[in-house]
Specification:
single chain, 90 residues, OB fold (Dihydrolipoamide Acetyltransferase, E2P), 8 strands
Length: 90
Amino acid sequence: MSHVKAGGSSKNVHNNAGARLGVKRFGGQKVTAGQVLVRQTGSTKIAGDGTYMSRNFTIHASKDGIVAFKKVKKSSFTGRTHPRTQVVVE
């Protein structure tokens, strides 16, 4: 005889909404101060000139201008460099 009851399968549990992450304003687009440029989980993209990062890693425009994306090398704590995308408002 088994000592544990059979575990049933649950089928209707994966119905949560998406987080709506991603790039909201693309390169070359005009933005005003305070607009959301990138919503992300963790700092996969880093904030450059004319932008700032909020507590949940969302990148906002801090001034009016045009959005641009640049490839930069970011050094980690160990000294190793990693290629990152930097969001800039010019």
